[in-house]
Design a protein that fits this description.
Number of helices: 4
CATH superfamily: Gcn5-related N-acetyltransferase (GNAT)
Shape: globular
Number of domains: 1
Strand content: 25-35%
CATH class: Alpha Beta
CATH architecture: 3-Layer(aba) Sandwich
Length: 167
């Protein structure tokens, strides 16, 4: 499945540097990137965009912009990236949404839309690193059909490693 992906309420597409103005306030909110030492500055969000765009070229995938279909407002990102997890290089499916967009099913809808795209890229399985206290992300993972495979230490903290076989 090629990008962009259209769902009932969302558009999922590659990020561009033009997304900086909409993405910077999302990543500046302390609850969105709660695991980071501090919310991202505009410069850190610029670096993140640069790395993500390079991932598209180097790895063929990355986190994608998630926009509302009705307004084209960028509300977050969702997609697979390769991460070193417990000594393995695994495709981790992640999602970060604007705080005011939590609780509306957008993360689940975006992630569900990305799964066939990930399979078309040749991925047979995706993983999600989820802090054991993060009930919201656990709910998204469950709705996607993911299950906890094992506990791992990532970025110095315990995480549950959720997994899903792709068709």
């Amino acid at each position: 499945m090629a990008l962009p992906i259209h769902t009932g309420r969302l558009i999922v597409r590659e990020v561009t540097m033009a997304d900086l103005d909409e993405l910077a306030p999302i990543y500046a909110h302390p609850e969105v990137l709660w695991w980071e030492p501090a919310p991202f500055t505009r410069a850190q969000t610029t670096e993140w965009l640069t790395r993500t765009i390079a991932r598209y070229r180097d790895e063929g995938m990355g986190e994608y912009a998630v926009l509302l279909r009705t307004s084209a407002e960028l509300i977050g990102v969702c997609g697979p990236v390769y991460r070193e997890i417990a000594g393995e290089r695994l495709p981790e499916l992640g999602w970060d949404l604007a705080r005011e967009r939590w609780g509306h099913g957008y993360a689940t809808e975006a992630a569900r839309a990305v799964l066939p795209h990930a399979a078309a890229l040749g991925l047979e399985r995706v993983y999600s690193l989820i802090d054991p206290a993060n009930g919201r992300s656990q709910g998204v993972a469950r709705r996607l059909g993911m299950t906890v495979e094992r506990r791992v230490v990532w970025d110095g903290r315990p995480h549950d490693l959720w997994a899903l076989e792709l068709p």
